[in-house]
Write a structure and sequence with these properties.
By secondary structure, the protein is α/β, with parallel strands linked by helices. The protein is 27% helix and 17% strand. The chain has helices at 11-23, 81-88, 107-116, 132-143, and strands at 34-38, 44-49, 98-103, 120-125, 147-150. The chain has a five-stranded mixed beta sheet, sandwiched between helices.
């Protein structure tokens, strides 16, 4: 009898990989963020990426980050990956779930994470650490008892060929 394979990926690698792949669906030319929500027994419940709401055509709304008219920038129109993942879930409660997200959530997404009952957050990048939005997010998540954990990158390379 042969021994089981030892080089399989961990749960964290698997679910962060799904979040990364989800982010690759984003049409945003500057920032691609993905999220994956997982049950306590390691089942994928939902996924999301940053983009426009259903019915808002990608070619009819602005992707610009800056401009004289704020209505001609993406910020009033895009939905973040975390909120998309929460809203995409159709199965009932997310109480006790874990969210994997490629970029630390903003304050608005933190509110949704808390209200959805997600209890554990694993993030890949904290690019905006120290900004007012992320500072508020961390304060709320900690106050609500959401466990926050930085993803520990193993350096493993995974390639997909189709």
């Amino acid at each position: 009898m042969s021994a089981k394979r030892e080089d399989y990926i961990s749960w964290d690698e698997y679910f962060m990989g799904v979040a990364i792949l989800s982010g690759m669906r984003s049409k945003d030319p500057n920032t691609q963020v993905g999220a994956c929500i997982v049950s306590p027994d390691h089942k994928i419940l939902s996924m999301g990426y940053n983009g426009f709401p259903v019915g808002c055509a990608d070619d009819e709304f602005p992707w610009e980050r800056e401009g004289d008219d704020p209505l001609e920038t993406k910020y009033f129109y895009t939905t973040h990956s975390e909120l998309n993942a929460i809203l995409n879930y159709r199965g009932g409660s997310l109480e006790g779930a874990t969210m994997y997200v490629t970029l630390f959530p903003c304050n608005e997404c933190a509110k949704a994470i808390i209200q959805a009952g997600i209890r554990h957050l694993i993030y890949g990048c904290d690019k905006y650490d120290g900004s007012p939005g992320v500072t508020a997010s961390k304060r709320m998540l900690k106050a609500a008892g959401v466990k926050i954990e930085e993803y520990r990158c193993t350096g493993r390379k995974i390639s997909i060929s189709v």
